[in-house]
Structures are given as structure tokens and as C-alpha cells.
Write a structure and sequence with these properties.
Rossmann fold; DNA polymerase, domain 1
Amino acid sequence: MSWEAAEAAGGSSRVVPRRFELIVFDWDGTLFDSTALIVQCIQAAVRDVGAHPPSPERAAWVIGMGLAQALAHAAPEVPPERHGELVRRYQQHWFARQHEVTLFDGVVPMLHELRTRGHRLAVATGKSRRGLDAALQTVQLQGLFDASRTADETASKPHPQMLLELMEELQVEPQHTLMIGDTTHDLLLARNAGCAAVAVNYGAHAHEDLLAHEPLAVAHSVAELRQWLRAHA
């Protein structure tokens, strides 16, 4: 269902009894405005190892996967024996520039509202544990998330391991868990784990690609996502 259809069915401001106990967020492109920088770092890393950099569209498509898998997909001409170097070059570019990106406007108030309503919050991301922990150190995010999983400690999306581990840790059933993300990898992750999903189309993947996986809704902004959650979650 599109955001517009969901709004027509349910309204934008009505607060309903809690439907989902656990809400799991993707990070990059969903909470963190980092898509453009990730694309640039992928292109720079591929260029560093002497290959032709991928188009912005190809580089953006792999966001959400584990880093090694993402880079291999974005630059298939780079031989496997150079994948380690490719990963290191990406990490060097990213950690040198990560200070340039911030949370999307409205994310922190939305998360606080969800906590106030009694939802448990978690993160399932293709980032590394090092990268996620660095982002979570910001004062405004401390104490907001009950748990998190990264691709380097589980399996890359769309394998369901991230969500399965989060649900087991927090003792929440799939029917009471909602996944929110900006890529088809996130939506397939939710489906593979038996969970519902909502998409946002201000990140890495196109609106029509997200709709093809039949999320409960597609939100065009953090403000719309917050309204949908208030009315339907």
C-alpha cells in the first residue's frame, strides 16, 4: 500500500493502540542522511584499486548489504583477491568523512515519541559494528535503542539472521515486529523473517522498486513516517 492509500484509509494523526511491540530501523538512508556520501566513498574506493567506478545508481543499490558483499556487487570487475583492499579503501574514505552526515530532520523526536508509546526500538544495518557504534555515541541517541545488529556480526541482508536474533534477544514474536528501511534488501529481510515492513523512499532505492515488495506503506519523509507510525503502529 502506498503512503497516500494508507492515509486515505487511516488518517494521519489518529493515535491507535500499539500494534507492534518492536520497531526495527535500518540506519543509512532511513535514519541517517548518508546515501550520497556512501555512494561517493564506494566510487572512490573502486577508483583507488584501478577499476572504473560504478554509476551512482549502481552504487546506491548495494547500500544495506554487508560491506564486502556490497562492494563486490558494485564493482564486479575487481578480482576477488583485491576485495580486501577494496574494503579497506572504502573504510578509509568513510571514516575520514563520516562527520559530514547527520540524522534526518525529525528522527530524534520520532524515536522519543515511539519510546513514550511503549515501543521497543532496534537497529538492523549493513554497517559494521565499528561504524554503528561510532554513530550511536552521539548524545541525542544514547538510550533510545534496546538492541542492534550489524552485517559483520550476523549475515548480510536480506538473510533474516539480523531480525531473528533481535526478536530472540528482545523476546518479541514476528507478528509484533515491524521493519523500516529504504531499500528492497530491508523489505526482503522483513519478509524472510516473517515480519511486516514499511518503506521510506528518501534513501537509496526508487519508489517503484519498494512498492514491488508490498510494504504496508511507503513514506516520503520522516514526518510522514512519524504520522504513519502514530496512526498504524
